[in-house]
Records
---
Amino acid sequence: MARIALVQTRTPATHAAALAHVAPLVREAAAGGAVLIATPECTNVVQRNRSLLLPALKTVDEDEGVLGLRALAAELGVEILIGSALVRREGGGAANRSVLIRADGSIAATYDKIHMFDVDLPTGESARESHAYTPGDRAVAADSAVGRLGLTICYDMRFPHLYRALAQAGAQVMLVPAAFTRPTGEAHWEVLLRARAIETGAFVLAPAQGGFHEDGRGTWGHSLAVAPWGEVIGRLDHDEPGVLFAELDLAEVDRARSAIPALANDRPFAPPALGGMSLVRGAAE
């Protein structure tokens, strides 16, 4: 069994304030015995005004929040998954990047969010993440103290083929740090996370941003831990900052995948023809 902790935050609008906000929660998680501590998307800053945000971004090696959490990992002797830090890319532009930190403070792996949240919601809210960030182009699985992790971020959860690829690469625990909007969070958050767990026979861990932030953004919270059979094994049923603990037994992954061997039974197939008429005619014939 491995004890993990999901940190739920209401990240402020500056880097210094964000680190001051998350650090005590990480210390609380470590004091509770967690060997892996995961934080939400946008752990290092939440600032919707891009004219303020983008000039303030630094590379992952210079970012105040990343450096502070690396130091905490080394001090506390725990692994920390920074669900994401908004950082400047080494080649220019910006990235929404997960950073997995070893217990000695070094960086084990990074993952740049692949799927950009470009939507117009029924509530009138809109988002164009691709206007600020360059999407990643590779899936990332990395070994940790609690098993092999599949790294994803927020909107990625709507693309099940990503999780299937991670599971087939050996991932036993899927990380889904998020800053989910409140309307979509209420409607889809839990059901999507449970579906990703069932489909892959993996644990799904989703630390979340919650509440109304300094920049006016509202996020859903309700951090969640789901077991490979799809049952919820831990939740924060609110949007306040806090820490959620869960115990992971990787034998549950093996049991779920043996009971429903969907990963082993996967088969390649040709996609359907474009347009519905040819399919209808073929069926009639």
Note: The radius of gyration is 19 Å.
---
Amino acid sequence: MNLAILGAAAFLAVTLSLHVGSIAIALRRCRAPTQLMPAPAQASAISLIRPVCGLDNFVEATLASSFDLDYPDYEIVFCVAHARDPAIPLIQQLIAAHPDARASLLVGDERISANPKLNNCFKGWNAAKHEWIVLADSNVMMPRDYLTRLMAAWRDDTGLVCSPPSGSCPEGYWAQVECAFLNAHQARWQYVADTLGNGFAQGKTMLWRRDILERAGGIRLLGQEAAEDAASTKVIRATGLRVRLPDAPFAQPLGYRRALEVWRRQVRWAQLRRASFPLVYTPEILSGLQWPLAAAGFLAAQMDLPVVTSMLAFAAFWYGLEMTLARFAGWPLTIAYPAYAVTRDLMLPVLWINGWLGSDFVWRGNPMNADAPDEAHIRNT
């Protein structure tokens, strides 16, 4: 029994230290900016490529934010794969409403990989006029200093700057649960990895310098993995350069979410992480409150403390730290946050198991396979 007590105490000490330490790092890195970052007078020209597929929640606002950036020299290239895509009239209206902007719309689908998003971006990459290129999903809300903040994160040892999304504008219970996944959990740990010098890419926003990717083998290399961000991470690390993150992630307005939407998205991401980085994925089973909470309850029982009261106090402290982070980062926060976080943490071990058991998923109507993207591409073309 003494060995069990020591093991539980050690496990609790390690997990609690990791939780407190990661929150401390995220508090420093994710704090909401209090003012816009001014663009440099001699700013490098940038090509902003936005792949679009369908009409997401808030799509008009997110695409319109492309035109309001406080940056002296940039072009916007919207990419759509199919001529019947319902987003095309909206993009055309936005371009017409901003005649002074250097904006264009490219339609077509050259299948260089099994990844539909990468295929959609390919024509934009080739058409981009500038050396610096940003690939940004259509559901990213861009603040006026978006490009300036990305460029400011670049260092001499950088090969790629990216940003995870922070969930915003949630409507309904499951959108709040998705915010609990995106913000105080996933974004937090991505900033921890970056701070420790082991940053990895997130496909929502990626700032490239064209010559770096071309020397490595070109944009087609990003099709070697089912997810272009995982491939990007491996390509950049192979060059000896680093993936870096700008301070404070950029918002992705969510709107209404159904439970099945949130579940499928998290399963897909779990499968992709497991397929691309299995050694990093393996310890994810220990993430969340449930395991340290069980250890706290066990220790309370051994010390003749009130178990339920002790566990509730521990959970309040654990989630209180997450709520403090959300408050300072400017993320959605309500008094019901612990309910959303509990739902997330109960899902985590089930998602982890699904990540190991499955590899097939559907992204925007396209069947894909996390383990064999090339074979999936051949099968579906």
Note: The first strand starts at residue 46 and ends at 52.
---
Amino acid sequence: MPVSIAKPLIGEEEISRAVQALRSGQLTGGPMVEEFERNLAQYSQYKHAIAVNSGTAALHVALIAAGIKKGQTILTPDFSFIATANSAKYIQARAQYVDIDEKTFNMDAAKTEEAIKKTNAAVVMPVSLYGQAYDADAIHEAARDAGAKIISDNCQAIGAKWNGSRNLKDDAACLSFYPTKNMTTMEGGAILTDDDQLAENARIIRNVGMRARYEYLYVGFNYRMTAVGAAIGTEQLKKLDGWTQKRQSNAKALNELLSGVKQVQTPYCDKRATHVFHQYTIKAENRDALKAHLDSKGIGNAVFYPMPLHSIPVLEATADCPVTERVCKQVLSLPVHPSLTENDLHQVADAIKGFYSKA
């Protein structure tokens, strides 16, 4: 049987709440969005949650709400989804790409500190890639010493912890609720912050820049979340911890099943972090041939991401990031979602073992 790499989970609870939202007469904003925001802020251990219509929108709004201007420098890891870099482009800031840590795939703290000093960066935008929190201790120390803000891309890492807390103490943290994420609102995202002014600014910017009816403070955007999406998110949030535990259990099982395969490096988990395994990403020898083999066996898999951000032509960038260059040729993400059965996990591992036994 095929094994999918991702599977959104929608139950009767979500369907019932979505119908309730549809029948309410208020299809965007309003009480259901406010309820979702309250619950999300409490779950994430931040003072405020501002719901928007995508993780990309969350990054965009957070930068503007934090006062970042055209021409200022934003540091991002070279290894991430393009939305991380696009958000800098949107406000005509200058993205500077930083290499990653070989083990965690997250921004290298020492190289980030060097880049801050060289560029006088206004913002550091670390990514909690694949579900593991970035090195908040080191990144924060480097940024605060230089007066830079931290707006983190945690779009793959809802619920991830650093030193036991979901609040990473950044100026703002951004989430995504795309269907393949650990929980969904169909499309959607959110900004988490403890900063009252940033939160107020973000709420205005997402609503076409309008504070009160026809009182415009910003050239804003229509980034509102729908009531239907928020209703689904409210029910998903109730289930999230259970799903996260299943992802972690699946990751542990895969670690054990693949422990004897010397051509594979299973995911590294920083002891200070709680990994929520949005992706289970290995480093594999002869990666592309392994991928083709898994495809032929019906085993879902994907390369996140096949190229450094700085090499994407539309971003018009250059960078010296040798670790990222190397990792892009090694990484392969395998199924880890909560719907997997024990048989599915064995099927994944057996296919990998079978490939390397013939190599």
Note: The mean pLDDT is 97.
---
Amino acid sequence: MSKFKDFLARKNVVISGKRYGIDALGAMAQGLFCSLLIGTILNTLGKQLGLAALVTVGGYASAMSGAAMAVAIGYALQAPPLVLFSLVTVGYAANALGSTTLDGGSGAGGPLAVLFIAIIATELGKLVSKETKIDILVTPLVTILVGVGLSAWWAPAIGTAASAVGDFVEWATVLQPFWMGILVSVVIGIALTLPISSAAICAAIGLTGLAGGAAVAGCCANMVGFAVLSFRENRWGGLVSQGLGTSMLQMGNIVRNPRIWLPAIFTSAITGPLATCVFHFQMNDPAGGVASGMGTCGMVGPIGVYAGWVNDVALGAKAAITAMDWVAMALICFLLPAVLTWAFGLVLRRVGWIREGDLTLS
């Protein structure tokens, strides 16, 4: 047993929740952002501006989402070059097959299938890497055959399961928009700030529609909320880095004083049901659920909502983009997160739960 542990250590195979649930998942979200999400943004801009070249480039970027996710995961797991390059094929296969269901329908499990299968293919590829004199053949063959084989075996089932979870959340949100609006908004907002990937979670279950709108509300409550809440400590640099970057920057401060998170959580519990019950705010981005978990990071959340409006109009599901749509976006994504989080923070500062310097970014 000790020899096997030594072998795993030599091969840099570290079986841990952090490596797979945080490092790999976070990297997958970056791969998804650099392919499918950027592709959708370019496609939307191209259609709105009448630039066919942007639509073409966007299509190429979106088509490479599976490969990009798998390579990102391999990079996070410190895969050697031959394994890393072989993951292009693995990711493409896993994403394509995970985007179908067992009965041949359309599934939402592409990103989730890529996550599981790319991790296994990477680790097995690392185990055989440089163990033979024909490494140039053995390592790619093992990585690709394992990855594609598992994709054919598991990915459609993963797609079916992910679609079922996503459909259930969306159904429950339509059935109980108030309570599910709170639940989805708070949970996804928390996931956004934790060192895990809310975008990957939303993409994995295809979180769209009314539930996707609640997720956007929760993410914006955390990003815009922390940016405004910590303005007195971090000024304009902190406003930009958290409001357009990530609220994850506050995790070190949250560990030291968890109460600083309460204003953003309280805000998400308010904006979530407002999004679902009052404004019927939906995320119907053609890219799927990934934008639901991005918030104002690079303005991806609002851009995704807008792309959904454009797509709905094109499909005839929506007559036109109205002034109320823009009002809802302004309130849910920007104004309410800023005002409510600041107000809650003011109360907590006065009672001593948030102290001077608690929100300072190092």
Note: The chain has a mean pLDDT of 90.
